[in-house]
Amino acid sequence: MMATCPLCASAETAFYHRDARRDYRHCRRCDLVFVPPVFRLSPAEERAVYDQHENSPDDLGYRRFLGRLFDPLRERLAPGARGLDFGAGPGPTLSVMFEEAGHPMAIYDPFYAPDAGVLEEEYDFITATEVAEHLFAPGEVLARLAGRLRPGGWLGLMTKRTTTREAFARWHYILDPTHVGFFSEASFQWLAESLGMSVEFPAADVVLLQKPAAGSREGGLSENIADRVPCCR
Fold this sequence. Notes:
By secondary structure, this protein is α/β, with parallel strands linked by helices. The protein has a single domain (44-228), classed as Vaccinia Virus protein VP39 (Rossmann fold). It is built from 7 helices and 10 strands. The chain has helices spanning 43-50, 60-75, 94-100, 138-147, 165-169, 185-195, 220-228, and strands spanning 13-18, 23-27, 33-34, 83-86, 105-108, 123-129, 149-158, 181-182, 198-203, 206-210. A 6-stranded mixed sheet has the order 5-4-6-7-10-9, sandwiched between helices. A 4-stranded antiparallel sheet has the order 1-2-3-8. The longest helix has 16 residues, at 60-75. α4 (138-147) packs across α7 (220-228). Mean pLDDT is 92; it is low at 219-232. The protein is globular and about 45 Å long. Keywords: Methyltransferase, Transferase. GO terms for molecular function: methyltransferase activity.
C-alpha cells in the first residue's frame, strides 16, 4: 500500500509496522511515521473518543502534565504576550493557565470551539498540546499556524516522539485510534528547516519552534507556505 507522507508530501514512504487494527508507514524524507488514510476514523468516530476525555482546569494532575510545555514557553514570553491554544479539546486548561499568568488567549478546536475566525488573527505564541499526533495533514496545519505568528513568535507543541522501530512496536501511544502521526526529533528538525524557524527540545515530549524576529533574513518560507494552505484535519 503506497501513501504520501502527510508532513512533507514525499512519496518515498515504506512499510514500518502492522498491528491488529492498522498499518503504519515511514517517510524516508522527514522521518514521520503515519497511518495511511484508509485506516483513519471518521469525524463522528473521532468525536466519540474525544467526548470521553475529562480534562479540566480543576485537575491539578492535568495542570502538572501541561506544565511540561507551559513552564519553558512562559519563560520565553514577554509580559502580556497574546496566544492561541489550538486543539483545546472539551476542557480547555492550558489557555486558563496562560491567562492566569497574564497572557490573553484565544482557543480553537474543530469539534469544541470551531470559530475559524481566530485562525485569521496573529499571535505572539501558539500552543498545541497532544494535537500533532491527531492531524491528518500535519504539514499544512503546522505551516498555517506558523504563519499566524508575529515575528519572533513561538509555536509550542507537545507530543510524544518516536525513537526506534522496536520501541514503536511496544508503544502505548499507537493504541489510541485517533493517533495517526508520530514525529521523531528529526521530523521536527525537518519541519523547522522547512518553515525557516529555530527549534528547541526542552523535554522528551515538548518542542518549541521560534519564528525569526523582524528584519531577519530567515523565516520568509513559513509565511509563504502558510498562505497557501488551509487549516484542516
